[in-house]
Every structure is written in C-alpha cells, then in structure tokens.
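sorry for the late reply, my laptop died twice this morning and i had to redo everyting from scratch. anyway the thing you sent over, i finally got around to it. pasting the sequence first so we're on the same page, its 637 residues, then the predicted structure underneath. double check i copied it right bc i was rushing
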Amino acid sequence: MGVPVVAAIAGLVSIGLVVAALAGMGNLFSAHNTAAAAAANPNCTLIVPANPLSAQGLATPYQLTATNAANGPCNEANANQTAFVQGAILNPATGAISVYNPLVIDQGTQPAATPTVPTLPAGGIVGLWFGFNGTTLSFQGADQAGTTTSTTTPTATATTATTTPTATVAATVSPTATTSPASHRHRHWHYAHGRWRYSHGRWWYQHGWWWSSYTTTTTTATPTTTATPTAIGTAVTPTATVTTPAANTNAAAASGTPDAILQGANCVAGESIQGVFSSFTQMGACNAPAFFQAANTAIQAGKLTVPNPGTATDGQSCLTTRSFALIDQDQSDNVTSEYLANGNGQTAQDTAANQQQLAGSTVLFNGSDNGLLDFFVAPALGCTTWKVPDLANNGASATALPLDELQAAAFAGQGGGGPAALVPLNDPMTLDGNGNSNTDKTNTYRSLVDQLPNTGESPAQYCGDMESIQGTRLQQDVNLLINKAGPVPAAASNLFTFLAMRLQQSFVNLNCQNFGLQNDVSTTVDGNGVVVAACFLQQVNAVTAGAGNPTKGMTVCPATTATASASASPATATATPTATATPTATATPTVSATPTVSPTATPTVAPAPTSSPGETPGPPPGGNAGGDDRHHRHWWY
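ok and here's the structure:
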C-alpha cells in the first residue's frame, strides 16, 4: 500500500509493540517520533494566523501547541497529534474550484520548507476545514496567542485585485464563550482479547479489562452580534468585532474565548449551548457555509459542474460520503490534507518540489472518512473521485472534503443505493457535554459540510439504514475489497475486514442496540489482535467473480483464533514509504490465513471487571461486538 497505510501505521503507540512493529522499516520512524508517540497528549490547540482567508494567511503556517502544557507537548510530526488544514477557493466569475492546504508547524519552530503563496482569483470565496488525529483540537487566534504571525511569514506574490469586491455571500460570525472552570469526568470499562484498539486518537494493544476516562470542560458566555464579510486583496475575508453569545441561546462557536481572528473568518468548531461551549472535538471550519453557498450558486448558474461519481465495477453507483454503504458513527469528518515531516520533526506541504527536497521524509495523513473513500474504497470499486488543481503543488490535481461533500449533495440517494445519509443526532461529535443529543449542534455541524438542517430524521432510522445497506454492500463487494490493503494493517488484514470492523464498532458507538436493533457484524481477531474474518447475520451473495467471504455461511464469528496471521502482523504491514502526492491502493495483502472456525461457534464473552470503590463498571461488551470507548473514538476511523 502507498502513503495512507504508512501514515496509519505511524499511529501505533504502544511503545513495547511499536519497536517490534517498526522492525526492518528503515528510516520511516525516527527516535524523536517514536518517543513522542509513547506519551502523546491527545488534546492540542491550533493557533490560527491573522487573515486566514487571504493569500498571505493561507501561506502563513498554523501553529500547534498543547491545550494544557501539564499534559505534555503537542508535536505536529507525531502522527497521534497531527492537525490538518484544508482550504478550497471558488472563483465566483467562472465557478472554478481550486484547493490549497495550509501548513501546520509546532509553535515557535520553522517549517521544513517555506509554504507556497497562492495566487487567488479576484473576489475568491475561501473556505477552510480542519482535521485532527488526537482527541480534541481547540482553536485560538494569533492575537489570543500573543503573536500576529507565525515564526515564518512568507512574502505574498499573488496578484491582487485592482478593486475591492463586495462579498455576495452573507456569513454569520462564529460566537464564542468565556472560560468557566466547570468540568465533568466520565469512565468506561472495556475488554480486549489481546488486540489493538483505537481510542483517544491513538492505537493501543490490550489484553484483559481496562478503564478509560475523559473529561469534558464547559465554558460560559454572554451576548452576540453578527458581521458581514468584505473582500480583502483577492479573497473574501469577513471582518468582525469580538462578541460573545447569549447565555440563554444556542449558537455556532469557534472556542470558549472571544477571538477576533476566529470570528472575523467565520470559524466554527462547536456550539455554545446555553452559554456552555461544546466542541466538535476533531472537526472545525472557517467560512464553510459561505463557500458552499457560493458553490451552490455557481452550480445553479451553470458555472460549476459537479462530476457524476459513476458506476462501480459491481454495477452499482459509486459511493459518496453520504452513502449509507460507507458512513460510520461520525460521517463527513476530518480532511484529505497531507504533510511531510523530516527527521527533526519539522513539517512541510506535501508537494512534488518538497518531496524532492525532503527525500526520505515521513508522510502525515489524517484518518478521515473522506480519505477512506478517496484513497481506498473508490479505487477498490473502480471509481474515481473528484479532483481539482492544488495551488500549492503547481496545479496538480487533489481531493478535498468540500469536493466530496458537494458531490455527495448532488448524487447521494440516487441510483438505488438507499437514501442519503446526513449527520445524525447521535453522532458522538454533535452530542453535548453530558452525552445528550442536541439538534442545534447537529445542524451547525451539518452546515459546515453542506447539509440541510435535521427535519425529523431519527437516530433509529440512521442505525437501521446503516446496518442493512452497508452490511449488504460489503458482502456484495467482498471480492473487490478482500484483496486490497486497508488503511490500518495492524487493525485489520484487508479492506474488507477493516470496513466490517468499522461497521461493527459504529453500531456500538451510535448505541444502535437501544433501538431494538441487532449488530449484524461479528469479527475474529488473530493472535496479534488483527481482525482476520467477518461474519454477517444477514447473508448476501457476492455480485462479482471471486472466492467470496471465507466465512460465508457463518452468522457469528468466534472472537479469536489462536493462529497469528503473518501477513497481517504489524511488523510486516508496509515497507519504507514513497512520498507520492496521489496515494494508490494497489498493495495486495495475503489473506490465506483464514481462521479455523466452526459453524456452531459462539463468540467468547469476557468476564465482568471488578469495580473499585466509587466506580460503577459498565456492562461487558457481549462477545466481540466491541465495547471500546465510544467517546472521541474515530474509525477512519
């Protein structure tokens, strides 16, 4: 497999096993990165530069720092803490879209290569989206951080407009809140049969019971105003004065502290719920609704044509980020940006020029639903995703979250693939600080990915469609998926077992069992904790030629097999990476290590844990249905 597999393997952080997993992998991981991964602080803050929607702002590196320094540093080159920025620019005159992915560096450091300054169209509408490989990414303007620029300030060479255009798209200022010390701590019990698990932005190897906890910190706020964007230079840049939302309302927000830079760029990273800021955790955006409004206007005017995803090898419609055959518990999150990291932990934009200059560098990749579609599932199904010129990479074609969402808005729900999937009320990223659903927060999230507000779609309906439609399509396409590498070979032996595992866990993380539904998927892990088999209660035949699912006919998989799959072990997951700008999914893992199973096998149920004083153990995750921490747990993630 290419770049995405490499980056995913960089997320393995159980230090004892990391050493084994990296054996023979050359210079892929430096001692600096391995040591940092062992004690990664999962909560980081991204410092947003001044005028982030301008050419100069796009080329000014964002800076990563720890939200709470007492929990350890945050390092952009640490794959468990990497934050990503993805930008898209719409030319209102022609309807053309281009992308530009701003760089992120560690606070107070220099980039490995100076970012390219883009040339933006006159009156261009810029949108920004953020992704994070940790647990919660907070946002802070450079003004709040005590600096107005990063340590490296590129000189803009973009041609500026001779006039100052007036923005044609209205935008709402992202409200913020002032900090309050209130916080809540939550604890969950889990069990693992000696396997890898992904929690709080990191992979861990576990055997037996363990507990995990997380803290939600609340913030309070007072009243709000709005602002209208104006054009600066060649890109529309909203301006605003610092305001705070009313304590008795719900409103989109960027942070818990009023911030002029964030509000001026219409940044949103959560919801102020009755004066309490509730984060989206890994996701955020700046000026996204304005970008999508401008793009949809261009589509209606015939200036922008969204390409049809086409027909897959199986004869069915190619998937989108809103296909129930693909979504998980937190659809449409994170981005497709990539960065390069050198041996000193410095980062650079992933461009052809930088790949040559920084030969041997590590590729940093965001574990996103969009990346899963663009780099793995679509190629496996014989589909091609929408790409546009990358202004940082000499116009080479690139994918982007806003492209995927525009395409999904145009074609999801067509071609017999079931209804379009929209962010549900039980999405973990849109729950409030107490774990309850919140319609306003869900609708705010939807606005960042070009989705209409919720009009009555229920979590039960979402769960039912996900289970029936995705389970069917996975079995139909098993022959197209089972010989393709998945994004995390240390977790699943191939793309088919990975997607089955992801569906199995999404059922748990969305609490679908509360709606009278049964998890359709069970999986088997080998001695290395790698998922090597998947079984389905509702059996469906493959629709393309091939051997099919090795466990076809079994409705329940045993939880474990005593034999370790050599082809799927972390130590043999991949070789030294090549920093290519366009990842491909061509590697074919060996899947001959089929677990020994019996048609009458039943899943192993772990014993219940013994609680300590003052603790209440949760119910054991029956069999292998998976009971990992459902808060901030991100299955490509």
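DSSP finds 13 helices and 23 strands in the chain.
thats about all i looked at so far, will dig more tmrw
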